[in-house]
Specification:
Layout lengths: L6 H20 L11 H13 L15 H10 L1 H18 L4 E7 L4 E5 L5 H6 L10 H4 L3 H8 L3 E4 L12 E8 L5 E9 L10 H22 L4 E6 L5 H4 L2 E5 L5 E4 L1 H13 L1 H4 L6 H4 L4 H5 L1 H4 L5 E4 L6 E7 L18 H4 L6 H13 L7 E5 L5 H11 L7 E5 L5 H9 E2 L12 E2 L1 H4 L4 E5 L6 H13 L1 E2 L8 E2 L3 E6 L3 H6 L5 H7 L2 E5 L8 H15 L7 E2 L1 H9 L5 H15 L4 E2 L31 H7 L4 H8 L3 H11 L8
Helix pairs in contact: 4-8, 23-25, 27-28
The structure holds adenosine-5'-triphosphate (ATP).
Adenosine-5'-triphosphate (ATP) binds next to helix 17, helix 23 and helix 25.
Pfam families: AAA_lid_14 (PF25601), HTH_8 (PF02954), Sigma54_activat (PF00158)
InterPro entries: AAA+_ATPase (IPR003593), AAA_lid_NorR (IPR058031), GAF-like_dom_sf (IPR029016), Homeodomain-like_sf (IPR009057), HTH_Fis (IPR002197), P-loop_NTPase (IPR027417), Sigma_54_int (IPR002078), Sigma_54_int_dom_ATP-bd_1 (IPR025662)
Keywords: ATP-binding, DNA-binding, Nucleotide-binding, Transcription, Transcription regulation
């Protein structure tokens, strides 16, 4: 009788029976001892037939080398930062019950671990340890690996494990998805010893599922903290404390992203109105019977800061609260929050040069008699800034006409700008043409690459600016125009003036105020720009299922010098999105040149990444009381990067010295 045997012999006997059961299932023979859960049965069959795992050859737990572990941790650095509080809370609840806690990445590698130090050795040999690999293809049926495969919470109790070395464990796991719904991590609680009954773990399943959802939502809130967010629940009492749905929206109510509950609402909507809704991100007003103004005024007008709206697809009433965006910090703490109009606020997060641009643009937005000259390297966003200036001012409803003076052949530029009457010249359109300057009447004329405007035309432009009227070619009467003029250049106009290629008087007229756009490599808010451009490109590609940007890719993007600035960044991200084969863009998806030509200088106040963290590091560390996570967050790099830099520079934290 196995029960009368010594423990090791008893285990060996149970293991033999276990192996026999696996073969029975593989051969299609039923037996009462075979697992009841269909997920476990399917996983056993996968292990036998797909992964070709041999149940007679139990494998000891595999722990990946330190360097590999660091790479895996780095790839989920942002999640780890958010998850840590949840991990500690959950472990606080289960430690006394003999459980260890594992958080793995989406490849099944344990990147965070909590366990009883007194059981260190047993936990390590059972694979309940940092770096342990719980991929089903290697470890066989197990809570983490099978949860990753099936994308649902699971208990894997004792003999439900495939590998005979794991059959004394009980493990329960739930997945954590990113805002697109792709699994990015798994939360697992496991114990070395536990009661035999499977039901003994039901409570673990509820607990681990709850915490996985909380971590998922905390990550979602962190990712979209700069957006307006609605929080919703069917219970009025719970919406503020634990509203289950989260939907990030634009000011016009357009849905940007949603957590699992929110995505289900969107999916519900798309199932009901499929033909057009699948192509467009819905508006909140399409999901709920609501006017966006009633949602945006919740905090100021609703008594208990929530309002009830009916979901159109299900007819269910949801209580909605509004989370204001955590605006990018543009002023030191203590000063009033930014009042920048949205088009200007979006231009930058926390870069001194951009802040100057934003503040000056705000002051000038309605001063249409002041001509604005925007300077900056190619691709720094001069046209975007011109448009933001237009959109935030009192001419926003008028036309915005952009003209690239370098792109129009010299022979055509005059007729394009001023227009012409019928028969003004041979080859012209029979009905004549309205010029771009008259087209801008009531709005803004944006002249890009003004340094490339031929001298003769500069004289005519000067006249337009002075007299506020244009004379189309062949016309006998001038036409009055009311335009705001914004110009841009990436060339040094001073040099052009000195060389006699640009009229000094025109320069002074155009340069009523100058906005200088810093190159991307010098911007302290590069991380913000990368995220914003990534979101833009994702949206332009129309992908709600788009891959996310991995931490290693972000590090590389932060470190690259970007000679082509934001335009080049946009192209690089479009390339990465087009070529990504998995749900994560890694450094390998970036165009090759992004991995070379790294920033070599350390700009003054900026927060550069990678190798450029250098000289400011000690100051930053001191400012943050040597809190590595806080420094990494501020610099927009991962913690391992900060550690690497500290090691390279020989910096030792005071308490470690
Ligand atoms: N703040 C920003 N957020 C998102 N995308 C931006 C931003 N600034 C610029 N871009 C994008 O970068 C690209 C280049 O921008 P833009 O044409 O405004 O640059 P530019 O300085 O006018 O370039 P050039 O000097 O070549 O005329 C565009 O695709 C634009 O959409």
């Amino acid at each position: 009788m196995p029960n009368q045997l010594p423990p090791s012999a008893r285990l060996a006997s149970v293991q033999r029976q276990h192996i026999e059961h696996i073969f029975q299932l593989g051969e299609g023979r039923e037996a009462p001892q075979l697992p009841a859960q269909a997920t476990i049965r399917r996983s056993w069959l996968r292990c036998l037939n797909e992964y070709r795992l041999d149940p007679t050859q139990p494998r000891p737990a595999r722990v990946v080398p330190q360097q590999t572990l660091l790479e895996h941790r780095e790839s989920v650095d942002e999640l780890l930062h958010v998850a840590r509080a949840g991990v500690d809370q959950l472990y606080g609840q289960i430690a006394q019950l003999g459980y260890a806690l594992l958080l793995t990445d989406h490849r099944g590698i344990t990147v965070e671990f909590r366990g009883n130090p007194d059981q260190d050795q047993q936990l390590r040999s059972a694979g309940l340890y940092l770096g342990a690999d719980w991929d089903e293809r290697f470890a066989g049926t197990c809570a983490v690996g099978t949860c990753l495969h099936d994308r649902r919470a699971i208990i894997c109790h004792h003999q439900e494990h495939f590998d005979a070395t794991h059959i004394s464990l009980t493990c329960t796991a739930a997945s954590i998805a990113d805002p697109q719904g792709n699994v990015m991590a798994v939360l697992d609680i496991s114990a070395l010893h536990s009661p035999t009954a499977h039901e003994s773990q039901n409570f673990s399943l509820s607990l681990v599922t709850l915490y996985a959802r909380m971590i998922e939502d905390a990550y979602f809130l962190q990712r979209y903290r700069d957006c307006l967010m609605v929080r919703l629940d069917t219970s009025r009492e719970f919406v503020h404390v634990n509203g289950r749905g989260l939907i990030a929206i634009e000011e016009n109510g357009q849905v940007i992203a949603a957590n699992a509950v929110g995505r289900e609402l969107v999916a519900d909507h798309q199932r009901r109105w499929p033909p057009w809704s699948a192509q467009h991100a819905p508006l909140l007003g399409e999901l709920f019977e609501c006017d966006i103004a009633d949602v945006l005024s919740i905090n100021s007008a609703a008594d208990d800061q929530l309002r009830a709206f009916r979901a159109r697809a299900s007819n269910v009433i949801y209580f909605i609260s509004l989370l204001e965006p955590r605006r990018p910090r543009v002023a030191p703490p203590g000063t009033p929050a930014s009042t920048l109009p949205t088009p200007l606020a979006r231009l930058g997060a926390d870069d001194p040069a951009m802040r100057k641009v934003q503040k000056l643009a705000e002051r000038l937005r309605n001063e249409t008699s002041v001509n604005v000259l925007i300077s900056g390297e190619t691709g720094t966003g001069k046209e975007v800034v011109a448009r933001a200036l237009h959109d935030s001012g009192n001419r926003a409803q008028g036309p915005f006409i952009a003209v690239n003076c370098a792109a129009i052949p010299e022979a055509l530029i005059e007729s394009e700008l001023f227009g012409y009457e019928p028969g003004a010249f041979t080859g012209g359109r029979p009905k004549g043409m309205r010029g771009l300057i008259p087209q801008a009447h009531g709005g803004t004329l944006f002249l890009d690459e003004i340094g490339d405007m031929p001298l003769a035309l500069q004289t005519r432009l000067l006249r337009v600016l002075a007299e506020r009227e244009v004379m189309p070619l062949g016309a006998h009467k001038p036409e009055k125009v009311d335009i705001r003029v914004i110009t841009a250049t990436h060339r040094h106009i001073d040099t052009l003036i000195a060389q006699g290629e640009f009229r000094e008087d025109l320069y002074y007229r155009l340069n009523g105020a100058q906005l200088y756009l810093p190159p991307l490599r010098e911007r302290a808010d590069r991380l913000y720009v990368i995220r914003q451009v990534f979101d833009d490109v994702t949206r332009e590609r129309g992908g709600s299922q788009s891959p996310r940007l991995g931490a290693d890719a972000i590090s590389a993007l932060l470190a690259y010098a970007w000679p082509g600035n934001i335009r080049q960044l946009k192209n690089a991200l479009a390339f990465a999105l087009a070529t990504a084969e998995s749900d994560e863009i890694t450094v390998y998806n970036l165009p090759e040149q992004c991995l070379s030509q790294r920033i070599t200088h350390t700009p003054s106040l900026t927060a550069p990444a990678g190798d450029c963290v250098d000289s400011h590091l000690v100051t930053r560390l001191q400012q943050h009381q040597w809190n590595i996570s806080a420094v990494a967050r501020e610099l927009g790099v991962s913690r391992p990067t900060v550690y690497r830099q500290m090691k390279r520079l020989g910096i030792v934290a005071p308490n470690k010295a």
